[in-house]
Specification:
It is a single chain. The protein is α+β, with helices and mostly antiparallel strands. It is about 40% helix and about 20% strand. Strands 1, 2, 3, 4 and 5 form a five-stranded antiparallel beta sheet that branches. It is globular.
Length: about 100
């Protein structure tokens, strides 16, 4: 899979509000109304990640989940990362209207 240059990555991020470019990765923090909602979000990421065989790095801090995508095997960003970010957005939307992004 070919790497996506930073300029193209910034262009792709326009369709993923709240996501930021950070050292060869894309990152977003999702804030939920409760710890169980945050954990449900993480659980919801499992199926799409397994289906794509592409997994995010995750940090759970009570009601906040930091999601980071990078294609480690390629050494930077690929189309898989942006597809994963889109999946994360869909999971968050499907969980609760109480989810919001921290920037």
């Amino acid at each position: 899979m070919s790497l996506i240059p930073d300029d193209d990555a910034r262009h792709r991020l326009a369709s993923l509000p709240g996501w930021q470019l950070a050292s060869g990765a894309i990152v977003k923090e999702f804030t939920f109304t409760s710890f169980p909602d945050a954990v449900a979000f993480v659980s919801g990421l499992v199926a799409p990640a397994e289906a794509a065989d592409h997994h995010p790095d995750l940090e759970i801090h009570y009601k906040t989940v930091r999601v980071t995508y990078s294609t480690h095997s390629a050494g930077g960003l690929t189309a898989l990362d942006f597809a994963g970010a889109a999946d994360a957005e869909a999971v968050a939307r499907g969980l609760t209207a109480g989810a919001s992004a921290s920037e």
